[in-house]
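Exercise 3.2. Students should predict the tertiary structure of the chain below and write it as structure tokens, then compare their answer with the key that follows.

Predict this chain's 3D structure.
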Amino acid sequence: MIPEVQAILLGGVEGVTEFLPVSSTGHLIVAERLIGFRDTGEVFTVVVQLGAILAVVWFYWRQLWENVTHLFQGSRRARRFWLNLIVASLPAVAVGLLFEEAIKGALFSPLTVAITLILGGLVLWWVDRRPQAVTQPERTEPDLDVITLKQAAIGVAQAVAVIPGVSRSGASLVGGLLTGLNRVTATAFSFFMGLPVLGGAGLYSLFKARHALGSLPGGSVPLLIGTVVAFITALLSVSWLLKYVSTHSFRAFAVYRVVFGALMLGLIALELLR
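Answer key:
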């Protein structure tokens, strides 16, 4: 398969799954194996992930800009927004810096991803079914102003996503529901939480792997194509997810995680996935 087609497929997989609670890592592992793609130094994955992150910046640019400008104007609302985001991001940043390499070295394998997909799906199903999980009324638009500092501590849950297959989005949504956020607000805040964590990790990983940029199949053109595709598909995915969770639960994602994890286990047993 030519590198440009591979880039389109993988960019689409990354963009669609990055902000859904289904583990983009698991999907990329399967997709790369199926199409025979070799990601030298994980450069491709890192760069296209930045494309998906830029989609959230684009989607929320007005709200982000207002919170930046209002912060310098002394707005308590803007100050609370940034403080919540910092508190939510710190656990994942700390765990990532201290333990990510060790955890990936010990646990990064299709088997680990398959198991955590299934376990994560069961946890998501259980949390979403709890009648006491949500204390805020459900609504069609997120209300980030109601998030307290205590609820912002759901970043601890996000930090668990350093384990491959857990899903950063899935972990943060579980944390949001457990602290009483409604689905739409928990989903929107999960998007914002991903900006400093995924953006910082992506730029750092890109810097470390900068020397491997020239060794990618097809060179820089597939990399650019994959990034653009990830940006577009992530933009569509984020928009769709917010509308979906305003009228649906997360249970369909929980079932999907279990089924996809079981599929991975089957491929591993058949030695089609290693």
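Discussion points: The chain has twelve helices and no strands. The longest helix spans residues 76-107.
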